[in-house]
Amino acid sequence: MTFLYTPHLIRELVDVPIEKVVTSPVACHSVLISSAGEAWVLGRNDRGQLGKDHAEQNIRYPVRLDPAVFNKEKVVTAATGRNHTLIVTDAGKVYGAGDNRLGQLGRNGSIPGFTLIKSLKDHTVVDVACGADFSVVLNDNGQVFTFGSLEFGQLGTVTSSNLLKIAGQFGAEPSPDPTLVQGLSNRKIVSVTCGTNHTLALDDEGYVFSWGFGGFGRLGHSEQKDLGSPRMIDQFSSTHRINRAVKITCGATCSMAIDGNKQLYLWGKWKNTGDGSSGQPWMFPKPLFDLNGWKVSDIAAGASSLFALVYSEKTSIAWGQVKYGELGYGDDVQRSSTIPQKIEPLEGIAPLMISAGLGHTLMIVKPDNELVPELPKWPAVEETEDGCVKCKKTDDEDNLLLCDKCDDSIHTYCAIPKLTEIPEGEWYCDRCHPPNKKRSHSTSSSVPDLSVSERKKAKAAA
């Protein structure tokens, strides 16, 4: 088993512009969406959650899904549950794959590969979220529909009395039919997010609503009671719009939000001991004073990891008690931290988006930075002797190029097609980019490429 303790570029996708990365606190699988509207998947597939035959239980490297599966519509967003996945196209259609034993795919019975959820065909869906065994969809009218397990009230469609009846009866009453969350009917919701068994919704005025499992105060209501229907969180009900929320997200057992001042708020349980642990959970949203002075632009929470991105400072911050390198601090440093720390290997690289999962983290960064190509790539390739893979000669390093995908070295005059000078931006060899093969995506960068000799000089200077 391989652990990556420092951020790596995904080798298979270095030449694919990615616009969105999707995973969740309960998921060991991920969806990556390109600017061309194509979906790539990787991770655990034991229940067919990647839309592939579940005999292939783990997909280690990104695999592109056939656009024909989605009627050749562009993929715009996705969501991942414990063992299921939802994908939304630009036509507002939703496709599901994976485990459906509790109706989390919006229908009855098993589903072979990604299948259109016909029960949502009359809606134009713009956003989706998945908890462990349930799903939430948002249509273009700001209405929220839920389906799947309702064990803890996470669907937001049960009364308090009915919630008491079903408490603890796992899977006793799955709800496969998408049902309108009536408690939000007078609101226009713009964002939804799920933890393991709880849900948050943000409306167009910045008010935040929560429901589902209330353990450790993750619902933000100063109590640990489960809620079967939405309830507004007091901390984001100010008469001043700037003090309300602009972004929300859920961890496995906690919740996060950013207000109009770009202040980060946190509540629930996110560590093992001390303040914010099971013994001392934060029962309602509190500002995280460790980040005072930082204008937080984006947030993410995984199973045990927390992240804050500061776009204006080109800074990525992480904390949490983790085991597998999810925080990306580096190879020879601490693996975890209970207080926010900069992700030093990414310092100076502009982050664009982050998504945190169960034991892993995905981030998109701006490519127009000379530091990005110097990040290690995954998977690693076996190092070969310096020299051109075409002519086998090791001289003339000033005209020796390094492929930005496979790391092969090739002289400019041995390249196919031949080059007369070092190219601007990324460069890929003919093995990675066959000249006569039409590509469905393209890349560009304002950073000039470097010859092998120039790369060596830059590395030595660093």
From TrEMBL:
UniProt RCC repeat ranges: 37-91, 92-141, 142-205, 206-261, 314-367
Domain PHD-type: 385-435
Superkingdom in the source lineage: Eukaryota
Coiled-coil annotated spans: none
SMART domains (alphabetical): PHD (SM00249)
GO cellular component: membrane
Entries under InterPro entries matching the protein: RCC1-like_dom, RCC1/BLIP-II, RCC2, Reg_chr_condens, Znf_FYVE_PHD, Znf_PHD, Znf_PHD-finger, Znf_RING/FYVE/PHD
Keyword terms: Metal-binding, Repeat, Zinc, Zinc-finger
GO molecular function: small GTPase binding; zinc ion binding
Positions of region (Disordered): 435-462
Biased composition (Low complexity): 442-451
PANTHER family per record: PROTEIN RCC2
Protein name: RCC1/BLIP-II protein
Organism: Hesseltinella vesiculosa
